[in-house]
Every structure is written in C-alpha cells, then in structure tokens.
C-alpha cells in the first residue's frame, strides 16, 4: 500500500502543527523546513494563521488538495480528520505520530481499527500511529533529532520502535553512517516492517537503489513475507542486518508489554535469518557497526592484514578476529625485506605490520601497498591510526582515503582518537567514509558478516518423497493427537527416511524365518496390548533362534496379543532430528547429536522448512559438537551427508503435511550400515 | 622502586624539551603547563634559552638540583644524561619517553640495560623507556592527548602500551570516567605493571585512596606478585578490571613481536584473574564500561528493574541481562496500581516500567522511588532516558542525579542521545556521573562484574596430604621424565586421592583369595613386561574365580612375567583433572568431565594452584556441562564435593612438588562407591 504520495508527496499538511518546537507538531515542521521540502507545505491549527512561516488553516475544509497528511492530534479525533482529508482533499497518504492507540487501551485499538478501515476504503497508505514518522531524501517527516546525513547510497532503515530508530541514528552519526530512508512503522496496522521490505524489493533498481538495509524488529508478523523479500533483496546484491529483540523469556515479556508483540521462539527467528541470509545483531552499536562493514568492499576470504602504528590495539584486534574464526596470518619471505627498508628501524612487518608511533603517512602508504600488491594471501586490510601526536593526521587520513578508493581489497579504518583528533576524523568521514573507533567491535561485526549464511535457494527437494501418498495418509486421519506406530512408519517410508525393518506375524515359523533373514540380535514385541512393557511384551537383544522360539511361545500366549513383531536390534550413535510448527513461521527443524547433547548441552541447530541439502549441512556444521561426526575415541565417523538428507526429507514431508505440529525421530541411530530411524513421535492437529 | 620524586616531584626537567608542540618534547611541556604543575619546571635544550615560557639550560651541568627528569632525546644518549642527573643533580626519578630500545634492536636493549644499571645504582625510579609517561593529580608528565578529567576518586590506570592507554582515555572521556593516575610503563625494565600494583597496594589508605584500577597487560612478568597485590587490593575494597591481550595464538604472536612479551597460556591468565577476583575484559570499550560500572554502588543481587521512556532499548537490555545470568523479574501486585495512577495511561508498570515517550521528570521520579521503596526484590535499577524531544532533558537528568545520590540501590544511567542531547548529557556527567550510551554494552559489563569471582583466601588446604612423604618420594627420583606406576600410586595415596586398590602376587592362591575380597569383576595384568597388551598380558572384566584361575595359569607363563596384578573392574562416569606447570604462573589445574567433553568440546575450567574447596567448586560449576553432575538419563549423580576435594588435593600435592611439570589423572571414575583414580600420568623435570 506504499504509494508515491507517501514517498514523494507534492504537498504535505501537518494537522496540529505548532509554533512550539518542544511539541511533536512543532518539531516536525522544523525538520521539514530544515530539509528544504520542495513541495507545498500547509498546517491546520485552529489558533494560528501562520506556523513557523508556513501558511496555516483553521480547519481541514479550508485546505487545498494535499498528497500527504501528518497527524499530530489526539487519538480520538484522528479518524475524523483522515476521513475528511481522504474524501475532501484527495489525500492518499497518512503519517500518524500520535500515541494513545492499540498500544495503550482497548479503546485506542478501536480508534486504530477505524482509521485502518478509512484509509483502506480510499486506497491510501498509512504509517503509524505511535511512530516518529518517515524520512527520506525527499521529505523529513519525523519529529525527532538527530537528522543523520542523507544520501542516495545510504542505508534504508525500518524500525518497529521509534525511539530505537532515533538511538540507532545517534550511534550512526558518530560512525559516519549515512541514510537513504528511515521508516518508523509504529503500531503498523497497515504498513509494517515486512511491507516496507516488500516495497524496497519490488521497487529495487539495480542501478540506483541503495544496497544496505537495517531492521529493528520486535514482532515478526509475517515471517514468509520477510523471508521472501529479504532473501530476494540479498540475491539482488543487498545486505541486511537486523535486530529481533525479545530473544530471552523476560525480553519477550518486555516486548509484548510494549507493542503487544507475540513472542516467537528465538530458534525460529534464528532459522529464518539463516535462511534469508540476514546478519543477526543484538545491540544498536552492533547493528550500526555491521552496517558500516556493509559500506565497504566485500571480504572474500578469511585472511586479514593489520597495519598499525600502535601495538596494543593490533593485538586485541588479532585476538578478536581469531575468536570470530578469521585469521591474521604471518607474512613471510623475501618480500618483507623490501617493506622493512621503507619503514623505521624497529618496525614489524610480519603481520600485524607495525609502522611505529612515529610512522609517517608515507610509511602507511607503503604498508598498505605491500598488503594490496605483494600479499595475494591477504583478503582484507585493517588500518589502525589514531593520534600519536607525532605525524600530521590530515596527511595520514588523506593517504587512507586514497588507498580505500584505489585498492581492490577492502580496507577497514580504525581511527580511535575521536576526541583528540575529532576534526581530522570528521574530515575523513566527510569524504564518505565510516569509522570503527574500537577495533574489537569491528572484529565482532566483520566476523558476523563473514560467517553469515547466503540466502537459500527457494526450491523444495522432492526426490524420493511420495507427496500424494503422504497427503493420502494425513487426509485419512480423523483424530488429532499422537499418531499410532503404523501411521508413523508409513509416513517415514513415504518421505524416504530409512526406518528399521520390522515383521509382524502370529505364525512361529514365519517369524523365525524372517528373523534369520534379518540377522540376530533382534528385538521382539507383542502386537495388541497398549502397554507392552507392563505385560512383559518387549524383549531386547535376542541372540539366537532358540531364544526367539522360547520368547515367541511365551509372548503369543499373553492376553490380547494378536501377533509378534520383530526388528533387528541396532547399535550406533544417537542422533536427533525434530520439528515444531511455530505459528506464522511454519516448521522449525532442529537437529543435533542425541542424548545429552540435546538434553543437557542444548547443542541444536535450527532451520526453517523446507530445507536444501546445503542448508542442512550448514546446520550440522554449526553444531558445537560437529567434530564428533568425524568419529572420536575409536567410534566410526557419522555420515553427515546422509544425516543432511534425512533432515531435508523430514522438512519436505512437513512442508506437505502442515497438520503435523510436532514430531521427532528418536532414536535416530548412526549404525555401521547407515543412519536409521528406530522410532518417532508425530502429533497432528487439523 | 616507586618514590615520591616520581609521584610528587618538587621539580621536573625535560631533557630535550621543545617549542614545537608537534614533538613529544614540546607536547609534554604543554601538558605540564596546562596542568599547572606546582613545582619548578626546567628544560635542557642546547638551542634555546626559554621554551614555552619555561627557563631553558644549554646543558645538564647548568641545572640546579631536580627531582624528576623526563627524557625526550635519542636512545643512545639517554644513559649519559641519566648518569649526569643522578650523580650531579640529585635526580631520583626518571621518565624516558624515547623509543629505540629493547623493543627495536639488540643495540637498543643494551642501552636499556645500561640505563637500568645506572638508575638502580643511585636507587632512583624509572618509568619507560618507550612510553607516554605518567600522569596524576600532581603532574601531567605525558606527551599525549586527551587529558581526561583528573579526580582523587578517579581510576588508577596502568598500561603496557602507551597508545592503548591513550585510546582507552579517548573512550573514557565520552563516558564521563575520571582518572586519578595513568601509568604507561613501556618496556618496563624497572617499573612494570606488577610494581605499580604493589605500590598502590602498599600505599593504600582506606580513607583517601581511590578504589578502581584498570589494567592493560601484554605480558604478565610476575604472576605471583600480580595475584598477591591484585587480590590484596580487592580485599581492601578495590575493584580491578583488566585486559590481558594476546589470548589467541596469532594474538600472542602479535604481542610478542610488539613488546617481546612471552606468551602465557590463556588458561593460566584466566585462572590467575579468577583467583585474584579481577574482572577480565577483551576490548577498550569493554574495559571502560566495566570501570564505569565500578563507579556506581555495588549490585548485591541479580534482579534488575528497568525504568524507561522507550520500549525498544528496554527489550534489548532485558535480553542482554538475561543472557548474562541476571534477571528482570515481573513486578506484580497491589503496589503497581498506585504507581500506575501516577503515570500516563498506557504506561507499563510490570518491569520494564515504561513511562512512555511523553513521560515527565515527575514520572521518572515516581518510577525510581517505586523500585527503591516498594520492591524489596529489586537489587538495581537501570534508567533509559534519551531525547524523545518531548520533555525537558535538564529536569529529567536533575531527577536522575538526585535519585542516584539518594537511593540505596545502584542506578545505571543509560542516556543514548549523545549527539542530540550532547549538552544535557555533559551537564549530567559534570555532576560526577558516568553514562552508558548503549544498553547492551552496559548489560554485558554489569553481568561480567556480577559473575566475577571473589579473591580466594590465601591458605593451602593441607588436611590429609602427607607433604613430608611427597617430598621424600620426589627427592628420591633421579631421572626426569614420566614416572613409573609405583611412584604414581604412592604420590596419589600421599595426597589422599582415592586410587583403585590393587594386589600383586606370583602365587595363584593369594591372587584368588584377594580377588574374592575385592569382588568380581576384576582386571588382571602381568607385572614385568613393558608392553603388557602386546603379549596378551591384560584381561578385562574377569567375572568368576574359574575364569581368573585359567587366566592366571596362562599369564604367569608369559615371558618376563614376575607376578600378576589384579584390580577391581570399575564402571562409572569419566572425569578429568590435570595440571600443567606454566612458566612464572606455577601449576594451572584443569578440570572437566572426561572423554569427549575435554577432547572434543574443550569444556574445561582452569584454576591456579593451590586451590581452596570453594575455588574448586566454582571451577566445576563454571563448566558448560555442569548439569551432568546432577545425573542425567538415569545415571547416578556425581558427587561434586568429592570431585572438588580431589582437585584441591591434587593442587596441594603440586604446590609441594613443583618438579612435576605435567600430570593428569585419567581415567578418574565417578563410581557408585565414590570417585576413584584408575590411572595417572606424571612427568617430572628437576
């Protein structure tokens, strides 16, 4: 529903505009004026004839036609104003900054619903209520400060929380991050985070659209749409960083008391972001730092060179990059001799390259050129240059600026003297750069970016999954609840998931013959009684024909027994795969090593169905205990590709059987002959 | 060797002082002058008669007597100047800011050694070379900027790296952190980090000394002294935060190329900090934020209330506190009704307490008072208040200031609008406060502080450890290397560590009788041959007398066999305890669950010998797999107290047998009858 009247209005009216710049209705006019809004600006205020130099009307009736209306009036009178504007003044876009709606009271929720109905009736767009507004290159319809530097290559930010958007900008200004647009969606009855993302996706222009998006989300209302448009944008070359807050139990209570957001399981969010290729962040600083990393050339490998004039920060940076799985490899060989000649005695050239506190801009240039030209193993360069008070900072920052333009490798500027060399840092930022004032924050952000997943491909892997048969089974089930053994077996078979073979018969000879085929040891269970174990109806580890004969004869005589089931007795390493249907997200698939790894260490990876083999492998490889797959302490290795295949098949099964709300395969055993499901639990709800 | 001439000199001379404030020798004079140094100031420079208004002499000979000399002249000529000053001008303190010493070349190292000998000869003190200098309330003998606000209640900072000290101050200035003294120790041939800490400890005055210390360390030269004085200071009421950089393998290479620091194992550092009660930090931002937390009242529990006028940051703060093991409990009951009446409709009072963007200073006051007075379950209050542009910030910050003085509970101010409300935030900081501009950074720091250990008591737990016997065994061993089985058994027994019983005999009847006493199953091993397994000399799981008879008869006939050893065959959960002697640190004890937990998951805790039971328990409880001790999947629980006791006994053993460079007990089995060592490996080096 986002239209041109909202993004590029020819005219704007502020209903409740004020001369008092302490009030939102005054501040928003001040921001529009300071932003040189190029269209017509009007105010409606019964008490004034001019507000901050802008023509003011006493009522809506007196207004000419106007594209966009910003409402800064009490909640109860908003809907009437919207109706008047839409019907009488051809207004097709609304920004309501007022609070007092669904976030506060049931009565407020009714006002909000009325407004939604009105704007929808007229096909108009609505931002808010309960927001700071919308700001882009065209108009600054927000009532808050700061106004960051706006630029067509800047970041598009979308935020559920107005104040958070403001505080993110506070942090961004100091780091030099620029914005293309800022969307504060407030209660979002019409336009929410997903809608803005969809708009950015649909209007994406490979030549002119900016590439970086920052999201602050408290509630993912429509995960499918978020996934669709986020991954589509990323495939088009965009980069997205996002905070989804409310990840802890208390945090999710805090979020829900705040916006009425429904708590979505954090594993589901994790899975969604992984699938979309979104870089997940957990604080404002973190989000802004990741977005700053996005502004630089992409890091295509894992090897960093550090060029510094101070030892300490280089050591901390090296530690932090290593912790994030990145490397600061030693630079060796003949080539270092040449570099060493160009620097002061005592300079270190092995990486970190320490040009010393007295190192000159020329030394800085030589060191960067060395990394760029002589070190093919180096993928990225971090430069630490503060104010040692010993060289001309402007010259050094000019070199840095030039090298950042020239070099093919990304260069990360770490300029820590933000107070003492504040002017020089500003001079550097004004050339269009960002600054990372703390080297460890940079390392954390850059490793987050380097370790993020690519968006998954959209196809569903159907090979070997018998969808019509799965549907037939599911459609044939009448009752909700846990499925019986037979249904489970059939569903697993239909999905192509290997299940331990079994044979049921009431005939002793048939059972014996089959057992010989299966090979001992075997397990025997009675068929018929519900509580098999209670009646002595389960015998494990039967090792001979003779033993089976004895047990068969005993078991077949137990009450209610209609037959005896036999299975091979398997031994192997326990694996775990399970799934839960999360409201709005669909099935979240969890995998891990079984037993204590899941139950005690909570070492599980999550993914969103349907999964590709690549995604399943990346889930498996993200487990803390991944090394166990290689086989430890004399155990055989576990076939991760087969495990991935089972995860994929399970996810495909679930995609076509959304009635399954919960299931897990347990135990899933990695035996010598492969990975086999021994038992499973499936709960359906139609 | 720190003396009054260094800390409170009556007179200072700058050798190589300059009119050019781009040079260190010029900058340092500027800083001394702007700091209004109260004593006599002189310069020695052959080319000038006055430097920046300070009397200048052409040579050292012409100088009057002077307490402290700051050298800003080339490395090769420093020693001569030191000798002249010490012998001729009674100078007893030196700060050498020049570089070009041991950090650069072997020749520089010789200069450094000469200077050290000279100052030691005269009983003088020496800071540097290769440092930025020393700054305290009395004199600002540093050549760098920024100069932070200095205050007798400020932080004492000691740094191995001058530039890092500068960049830490850059970050501190913005957060409002004040300093009492800043020590940049440079190459530290005489005064290092440990010496400054010792000085601060010995001169500690409970009434007047400041309480907060920040350390940046690249090389712990004397871990014992660091431990002694850090824990002593903490016991006297101080708080210490420290970065030890070089924690990764590449980082430690980076550190060693920088200062020639020897890499100390990161586990040893971890253990040392834990034992001392030092809060470990990993970045400058982190260090400064923790120090800011230290300036506030102590948090005595784990329950936080959040008072905010913006939802988003409160949610992120709640998430981050939870992640750090702290809580934001729901506030319930009748009492909330009263608070709700005082706030605007729509305000939330359940914690986070959201007074809304329009919330007034009076609302802020009401909410803080409520947490202070009506909520005994609340231990600390975090207040988020930026610039919503809707209330008078000065008034709100005045309320916050007053409440921070009045309330008994610590209040953490989170003022995010550092750009827009820069003036108001400065006004608040000027009243002596700090500011946390990012709520998640605060949460990380405050949980680090709340989760830090207390300094351990100094005693050694000797009970049941037979030290004379241990010494007798160790003294009796002639060769270095791995000890034989008998020595190991005796050492473990002497330390009171339970060892699996064993019995050796060549007599069939004796072995059979003893086996019956031990109870089957048992293990039998040949005594004599070195490679027992290769000759079929080990049989596990012997379950009957009959079986043992057969095996005895077979094994006793094997070549070189002198007897048969039997042990009960134990079953239980594997534990791990081991130790390594780290140069300078002493024994680092490691513990964990055995098997994959140590080998694959690297889930080990470290402690420094000797350990108390409390420390050992805290190590065990810090394991990721600690839950396993409660008994899972039907396994019996593991007796953590007995495990702790074994760890303590091992640490006591090692304290009296420093010749042991490496040992581990493996397997250490938690059986039904208690925890028992089955085998161990001990390597000695005399």
Query: Tell me, what's the shape of chain A?
Result: flat
Q: In CATH, what is the class of the largest domain in chain A?
A: Alpha Beta
- Biggest protein-protein interface? A-B, 101 and 102 residues
The CATH topology annotation of the largest domain in chain A reads as Rossmann fold
Largest beta sheet: strand ordering of chain A: 3-4-2-1-5-6-7
Q: Give unreliable regions of chain A as ranges.
A: 258-263
Assembly classification: homodimer
**Helix count from the secondary structure assignment of chain A:** 23
Helix content of chain A: 25-40%
The whole-angstrom Rg of chain A is 32 Å
- Class from helix and strand fractions of chain A: alpha/beta
Write a concise keyword list for the protein shown above.
flat; ATP-binding (chains A, B); homodimer; ATP-grasp (chains A, B); nucleotide-binding (chains A, B); Rossmann fold; ligase (chains A, B); 686 residues; 37% helix; CoA-bd (chains A, B); 5 domains; 7-stranded mixed β-sheet
In words, what does this structure look like?
Chains A, B: Keywords: ATP-binding, Ligase, Nucleotide-binding. Chains A, B: InterPro entries: ATP-grasp (IPR011761), ATP_grasp_subdomain_1 (IPR013815), CoA-bd (IPR003781), Ligase_CoA_dom (IPR043938), NAD(P)-bd_dom_sf (IPR036291), Succ_CoA_lig_flav_dom (IPR032875), Succinyl-CoA_synth-like (IPR016102). Chains A, B: This is Acetate--CoA ligase family protein. Chains A, B: It comes from Coprobacter tertius. The structure is a homodimer of 686-residue chains. Chain A has 23 helices and 29 strands. The first copy, chain A, has 686 residues and is α/β, with parallel strands linked by helices. Chain A has five domains: 129 residues, Rossmann fold (3-Layer(aba) Sandwich); 150 residues, Succinyl-CoA synthetase domains (Rossmann fold, 3-Layer(aba) Sandwich); 148 residues, Succinyl-CoA synthetase domains (Rossmann fold, 3-Layer(aba) Sandwich), CATH 3.40.50; 69 residues, ATP-grasp fold, A domain (Dna Ligase, domain 1); 112 residues, ATP-grasp fold, B domain (D-amino Acid Aminotransferase, Chain A, domain 1), CATH 3.30.470. In chain A, the strands form five sheets. Chain A has a seven-stranded mixed beta sheet, with helices on both faces. In chain A, strand 1, helix 2 and strand 2 form a beta-alpha-beta unit. In chain A, helix 11 runs parallel beside helix 16 and helix 22 packs across helix 23. The longest helix of chain A has 16 residues. About 1% of the residues of chain A have low confidence. Chains A and B meet through helix 5, helix 8, helix 10, helix 11 and helix 16 of A and helix 5, helix 8, helix 10, helix 11 and helix 16 of B.
């Amino acid at each position: 529903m986002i239209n041109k009247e909202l993004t590029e209005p020819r005219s704007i009216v502020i209903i409740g505009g004020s001369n008092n710049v302490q009030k939102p209705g005054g501040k928003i006019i001040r921001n529009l004026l300071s932003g040189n809004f190029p269209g017509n600006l009007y105010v409606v205020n019964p008490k004034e004839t001019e507000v901050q130099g802008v023509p003011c009307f006493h009522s809506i009736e007196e207004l000419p036609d106007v594209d966009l209306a910003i409402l800064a009036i009490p909640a109860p009178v908003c809907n009437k104003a919207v109706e008047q504007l839409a019907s009488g003044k051809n207004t097709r876009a609304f920004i309501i900054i007022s609070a007092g709606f669904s976030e506060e009271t049931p009565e407020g929720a009714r006002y909000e619903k009325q407004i939604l109905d009105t704007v929808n009736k007229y096909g108009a767009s609505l931002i808010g209520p309960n927001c700071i507004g919308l700001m882009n290159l065209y108009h600054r319809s927000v009532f808050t400060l700061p106004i960051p530097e706006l630029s067509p290559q800047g970041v598009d930010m979308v935020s559920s929380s107005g104040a958070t958007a403001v505080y993110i900008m506070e942090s961004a200004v100091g780091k030099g991050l620029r914005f293309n647009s800022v969307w504060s969606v407030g209660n979002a009855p019409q336009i929410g985070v997903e809608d803005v993302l969809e708009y950015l996706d649909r209007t994406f222009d490979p030549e002119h659209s900016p590439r970086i998006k920052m999201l602050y989300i408290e509630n993912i209302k429509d995960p499918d749409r978020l996934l669709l448009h986020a991954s589509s944008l990323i495939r088009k070359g965009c980069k997205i960083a996002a905070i989804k807050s409310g990840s802890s139990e208390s945090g999710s209570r805090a979020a829900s008391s705040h916006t009425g957001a429904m708590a979505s399981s954090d594993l589901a969010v994790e899975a969604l972001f992984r699938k979309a290729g979104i870089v997940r962040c957990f604080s404002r600083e973190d989000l802004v730092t990741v977005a700053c990393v996005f502004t630089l050339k992409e890091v295509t490998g894992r090897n960093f060179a550090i060029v510094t004039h101070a030892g300490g920060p280089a050591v901390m940076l090296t530690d932090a990059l290593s912790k994030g799985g990145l490397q600061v490899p030693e630079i060796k060989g003949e080539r270092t001799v040449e570099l060493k000649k160009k620097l002061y005695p005592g300079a270190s050239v092995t990486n970190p390259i320490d040009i010393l506190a007295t190192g000159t801009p020329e030394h800085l240039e030589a060191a960067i050129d060395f990394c760029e030209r002589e070190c093919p193993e180096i993928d990225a360069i971090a430069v630490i240059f503060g104010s040692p008070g010993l060289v001309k900072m402007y010259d050094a920052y000019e070199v840095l600026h030039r090298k950042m333009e020239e070099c093919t490798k990304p260069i990360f500027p770490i300029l820590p003297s933000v107070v003492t060399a504040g002017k020089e840092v500003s001079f550097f930022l004004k050339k269009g750069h960002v600054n990372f004032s703390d080297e460890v924050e940079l390392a954390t952000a850059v490793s987050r970016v380097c370790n993020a997943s690519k968006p998954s491909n959209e196809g569903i892997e159907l090979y070997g999954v018998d969808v019509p048969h799965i549907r037939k089974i599911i459609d044939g089930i009448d009752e909700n609840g846990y499925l019986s053994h037979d249904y489970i077996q059939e569903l697993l078979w239909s999905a192509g998931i290997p299940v331990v073979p079994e044979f049921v018969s009431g005939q002793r000879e048939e059972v014996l013959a089959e057992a010989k085929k299966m090979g001992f040891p075997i397990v025997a269970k009675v068929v018929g009684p519900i509580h098999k174990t209670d009646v002595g109806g389960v015998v494990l580890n039967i090792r001979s024909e003779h033993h089976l004969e004895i047990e068969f004869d005993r078991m077949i005589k137990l009450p209610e027994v209609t037959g005896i089931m036999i299975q091979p007795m398997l031994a192997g390493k326990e694996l775990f795969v399970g799934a839960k249907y999360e409201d709005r997200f669909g099935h979240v698939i969890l995998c891990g090593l079984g037993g204590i790894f899941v139950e005690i260490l909570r070492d599980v990876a999550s993914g969103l169905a349907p999964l590709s083999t690549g995604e399943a492998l990346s889930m498996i490889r993200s487990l803390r205990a991944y090394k166990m797959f290689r086989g430890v302490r004399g155990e055989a290795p576990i076939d991760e590709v087969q495990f991935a295949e089972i995860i994929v098949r399970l996810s495909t099964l679930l995609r076509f059987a959304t009635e399954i709300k919960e299931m897990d395969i347990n135990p899933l055993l990695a035996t010598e002959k492969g990975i086999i499901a021994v038992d499973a639990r499936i709960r359906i709800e139609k």
